[in-house]
Amino acid sequence: MAVSYQKIKAIRTHKQGTAGGEEQSSSRSGFSSRGGEISGFYMGSRTRKEGENTKLPYQFSKAWLGSLSFFLQFTWKETHERCIRLASALAQLQISRGDVVAALAPNIPAMYELHFGVPMAGAILCTLNIRLDSAMVALLLRHSEAKIIFVDYHFLHIAQGAFQILSKARTKLPQLILIQEPEQQAPISSKTNFTQTKDLEYESFLAMGKADFEIRRPKDEWEPISLNYTSGTTSSPKGVIYSHRGAYLNSLATVLSSEMGSMPVYLWTVPMFHCNGWCLAWGVAAQGGTNICLRNVTAKGIFSNIAQHKVTHMGGAPTVLNMMLNAPASDQKPLPGKVLVTTGGSAPPPNVLFKMEELGFSVTQLYGLTETYGPGVFCTWKPEWNVLPRDAQAKIKARQGLHHVGLEEFDVKDPFTMKSVPADAKTIGEIMFRGNTVMNGYLKNVEATTEAFTGGWFHSGDLGVRHSDGYIEIKDRSKDIIISGGENISSIEVESVLCGHSAVLEAAPCLFIY
């Protein structure tokens, strides 16, 4: 892991220079390392621990209605202590700097805590898509060389299937730690010998940690904080490396662009395994907010939680918005106030945006990729557009928008000449990114990393135009993909699965209009 990271770091520094051609500096955006020590996302938790704000330690950090109909909640003080114990327990399992710790879980409190506890141990968090089958999970565990995997009980069979595949290939298995719901817990003795324990349980594992564990802060701001795999739309999934610096900048930029003020109440409808929840796993903490965790995303659950917890912000793919709009009247509840919604994954139809606003939601479209830490572009609405006819507003809402403050440069270019296309809303080019909120590179894939940064810019593979006001609009995909539920599905993978059936001789995914 460390060797591949150093190679990628060197390539990225060389390839991704400034507009004038200089090499990228680690302090270009004004967030310097202060002697090599980065506060990063531990800053919020540390403030709460030291009591600098007398209210925040007891502000609820997260709440959760479990599938067994019980309600669970934690304060920020409790969350900080749990994350410290988690980091300590990981250290006791010999997790060192640069080791990968995987997670296969939905939006539950443990998944949120892993976003802090794993980096606090100096390790790299790898969140796996819960839609994956055992074969793909096995492939990613082997590629990432994960030493530990935290598994929610609902997906235990997927992990066990992956372990069987790895065992047949004589691959060393990661330590499995099972996440159960509180009423299912079976406490383990505090004298348990970790090195001899076959299976561990999450809450008991936390209890083994020490409250006075010293956080292993990054020595270099470009050190990896997380590993996110792409959906494999053009080939096998690629491991995208996020740095502490990039995650820090993108989290704060996303908070600003989402108009998330102090102490927001965020409803987790965006999967935390997607770009670390669009970096809001850390962003909400920076604002001292409350995280409302949802194991399952249903229209009834969304409306109920909004009403009960007075939710201020949420996000999700257009399919989530459609689900809410088409929910039975009995499932819909009046909003306690304006709820700000960010949506991405695919472009939502304008009528969906209008209908959401009629219900009391304010929807902003965003755009980004796994390689850009999730959202990097927001279609910020201008007040002067309110007087435009509905059709004109619909066309504007279809745009992806402008890049946020954390992203240095964003352009639509001719991929062959690398010149910017005219801002005429007609000339199509490739959408490209450059800056600190672009990935470090692809794990163990120097060739793909070099290709992605051809010409000193990250090539998105998406085609679009730029309007005269600077707003960009995607027109087509250069990748042949299928989008379902906000997920990118590889047509190549579909073909492979179909051909894997004994009754199928040949297969070719194609467009079917009905």
TrEMBL record:
GO biological process, one term: fatty acid metabolic process
InterPro entries recorded: AMP-binding_CS, AMP-dep_synth/lig_dom, ANL_N_sf
Domain AMP-dependent synthetase/ligase, first and last residues per copy: 73-443
SUPFAM superfamilies reported in the protein's UniProt record: Acetyl-CoA synthetase-like (SSF56801)
Biased composition (Low complexity): 21-37
GO molecular function, one term: ligase activity
Protein name: AMP-dependent synthetase/ligase domain-containing protein
